[in-house]
């Protein structure tokens, strides 16, 4: 099921969009905290964003720029500010389409469907994985926490990626090693232990203490 994030401060419009998208079997959510839209974007991990221009605190252009720093997810601007200057600005800031208010919900659905079809012959649009404030950057193999960032080796990155993709679940050592071998990161049981130890030290250095838990005789998990 495709997920659509609605960034619209008019609650009536936001609820109307959510209801319409849900009827077409999309998993739709609207933003509630306009001070930190990126947080909900990362947590929800949408396939498409509907983004108004006029918003509290920061406008849609600002949030489009912020989203573009971490994702290539398609963005459709929806706004009554539909003069040529704003349409050009929206596209130049990273938007993929523009729909003027007032709009027909059928047009919204048609535009969403078309853009999703064009976009998702892909292997993943999100460039980050977030869990409990830790943000793993897929594009540059770094992890951030509370304004601190560290670089990870290939093996360290793959290990934490596997664990964060399965947050709150115990992943066996065997499964981790199998995943690493499949990605040409040749690793045995002893090498895994060494890599996890080094990874824990790096995470601790930026405040992620005990981020990786050991389940004795089974494997590891993040919580």
TrEMBL record:
PROSITE patterns: OMPR_PHOB, RESPONSE_REGULATORY. One of its GO terms (cellular component) is cytosol. The keyword Ribonucleoprotein does not apply. Residues 3-116 form the Response regulatory domain. Keywords: DNA-binding, Phosphoprotein, Transcription, Transcription regulation. The modification 4-aspartylphosphate is found at residue 52. Residues 126-223 form the OmpR/PhoB-type domain. It comes from the Bacteria. Pfam families: Response_reg (PF00072), Trans_reg_C (PF00486). Coiled coil: none annotated. InterPro entries: CheY-like_superfamily (IPR011006), OmpR/PhoB-type_DNA-bd (IPR001867), Sig_transdc_resp-reg_C-effctor (IPR016032), Sig_transdc_resp-reg_receiver (IPR001789), WalR-like (IPR039420), WH-like_DNA-bd_sf (IPR036388). Transmembrane segments: none annotated. May play the central regulatory role in sporulation. It may be an element of the effector pathway responsible for the activation of sporulation genes in response to nutritional stress. Spo0A may act in concert with spo0H (a sigma factor) to control the expression of some genes that are critical to the sporulation process. This is Stage 0 sporulation protein A homolog. It comes from Clostridium senegalense.
């Amino acid at each position: 099921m495709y997920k659509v994030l609605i960034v619209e401060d008019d609650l009536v419009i936001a609820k109307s969009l959510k209801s319409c998208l849900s009827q077409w079997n999309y998993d739709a959510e609207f933003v509630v905290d306009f001070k930190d839209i990126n947080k909900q974007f990362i947590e929800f991990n949408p396939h498409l964003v509907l983004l108004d221009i006029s918003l509290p605190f920061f406008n849609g252009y600002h949030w489009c720029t912020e989203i573009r720093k971490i994702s290539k997810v398609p963005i459709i601007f929806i706004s009554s500010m539909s003069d040529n200057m704003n349409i050009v600005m929206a596209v130049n800031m990273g938007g993929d389409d523009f729909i003027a208010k007032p709009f027909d919900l059928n047009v919204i659905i048609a535009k969403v469907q078309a853009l999703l079809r064009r976009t998702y012959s892909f292997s993943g649009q999100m460039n980050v994985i977030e869990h409990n404030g830790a943000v793993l950057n897929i594009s540059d193999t770094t992890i951030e926490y509370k304004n601190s960032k560290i670089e990870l080796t290939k093996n360290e990155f793959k290990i934490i990626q596997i664990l964060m993709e399965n947050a709150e679940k115990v992943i066996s050592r065997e499964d981790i090693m199998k995943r690493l071998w499949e990605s040409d990161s040749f690793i045995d049981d002893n090498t895994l232990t060494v890599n996890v130890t080094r990874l824990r030290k790096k995470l601790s250095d930026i405040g992620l203490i005990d981020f990786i838990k050991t389940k004795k005789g089974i494997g590891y998990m993040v919580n």
